Amino acid sequence: MLDIYLPILVVMGIAFAFAIGSVILSRLIGVKKPSAVKLAPYECGMPLIGTAQERFSVKFYIIAMLFILFDIEAVFLYPWAVMFKRLGIFGFVEMGVFIIILLVGFIYVWKKGALEWE
Amino acid sequence: MVMTPEVLTLSETPWLFSGVMLVKIAVAFVVTLLIVAYATYAERKTIGRMQTRMGPNMTGPKGLLQPIADGVKLFFKEDIIPAQSHWFAFILAPMMILAPAFIAISVIPFGGDLQFTYDGTLYAVPMQITDLNIGVLFIVAMAALGVYGIVLGGLASNSKYALLGGIRSTAQMVSYELAVGLSIVAIFMLSETLSMRGIVAAQQLPLWGLESVSFIPNWYIFCQPLAFVLFVVGSMAEINRTPFDLPEAETELVSGFCTEYSAMKYALFFMAEYANMITVSAVATTLFLGGWGGPFYGWINFLIKVFAFMFFFIWIRATFPRLRYDQLMYLGWKIMLPLALVNIVITGIAILLW
Which of B303, B302, B299, B301 has its CA nearest to residue B114? Predict the structure, then answer.
């Protein structure tokens, strides 16, 4: 077990060390001349209007929920796909029912217009 | 005398195991960094030529030192953290996007076994940092983690462009992640394993098990052309390459989620994009083009295929205009997702009838 996962831990450590190290190094050797205008958020040179912490379209929220739904489906499909040849016709029917149930929901969402962006 | 090669284990040969592991990681890391650096050069040069320009040609012979000059320049730039930003999340975001991009490389098999003798014993070392039995799942997971970096970058900047870019990008990436994730399910039905190495091994047999066409390898691109197209298109969208580079649409969002970033933090976003491009090319090579199999020596085949994919991505960027956002969502949800599901069902029926 450790034989397989130890290298991933080491790579993880090196990747984060590389990222943190380069950010710190660039902070140390970079120029530092901050001014109030420079530290303001970019808005095409105009004076700031309001804050960026505003409400955004509810569509993104629907997409996020749909994603969770279908990603769980995908995760269920992975082990099923690996075992598919051994499960045979039983596995096919079983997963077919599962996919059809989700598909009904997908068609409902589609017909309701949740995937329209006009 | 023929010896069967031993496999290195942590319990029996801890020092040798650790040494080999560190060498493999060092080589993979340095090669990845080099490819990342010179992918930027290749991209600028290729697109320059395609648009009848020269591309970079001043820094060093033929402009070959351009990536290094760019890197050094970004190191010395001022590191700006906007006054209204959430500084911790702002700094964390580029790291959260770069680290998964590099970690995903650790399960990609570059070549066959390397054999060496140490202390009178023959050892076989796979040219892969680690052979995870859930390798593909691990890569999908790392690709999903990269989304956090973009969300954090967009929210923490406290800038309207960054916010819009971040949210758009998130919606795009999760939508196409589904299509990509579902398109490769058909591969696992054929290979019966999630290990990257196992999938490559399954592709070395003759095509469809027929001896009469044994000169064609059993690469999954031949049995799963639809899955291949879905995977490549979906991956392009997931790594935000043109024609799906909506998050960075310069004409409307300045630079998307990385508008407020400067110096090395910006460079990390940039590197992550190219590292993701390498990962996607390598995964496509492994899943659909038989990994390191081919006419030359192991890892050379692998690199040729990866570079071919990267050239293809650059070529696409020079050819196609950017999609509109509603077209993008239409393609992802209403075309690619149903097609991926249909492909799974067709593959299932075909396997049952075969």
Answer: B299
Nearest chain A Cα distance for residue B107, angstroms: 8
Assess contact for A74 and B143: CB atoms under 8 A: no
pLDDT in tens, A61-92: 888 888 888 888 888 888 888 888 888 888 88
Q: Nearest 5°: CA angle at B251, between B248 and B253?
A: 50
Half-sphere exposure (Cβ direction) of A71: Cα atoms closer than 13 Å: 15
Is the CB of A117 less than 8 angstroms away from the CB of B326? yes
pLDDT in tens, A21-31: 888 888 888 77
Q: In which band, very low, low, confident or very high, does the pLDDT at B171 lie, cut at 50, 70 and 90?
A: confident
pLDDT of residue B211: 62
- The bridge status of strand B111-118 relative to strand B121-127 is antiparallel
- Picking from B276, B286, B282, the residue whose alpha carbon sits closest to that of residue B244 is B276
B91–A23 C-beta distance less than 8 A: yes
Of A3, A7, A86, the CB nearest to B9: A3
Task: Tell me what ipTM this predicted complex has.
Answer: 0.85
Residue B276 makes CB contacts below 8 A (sequence gap 6+) with B101, B143, B146, B238, B239
Greatest alpha-carbon span in chain B: 72
DSSP state of B122: E
Dig out the tokens for A91 from the structure: 């596995």
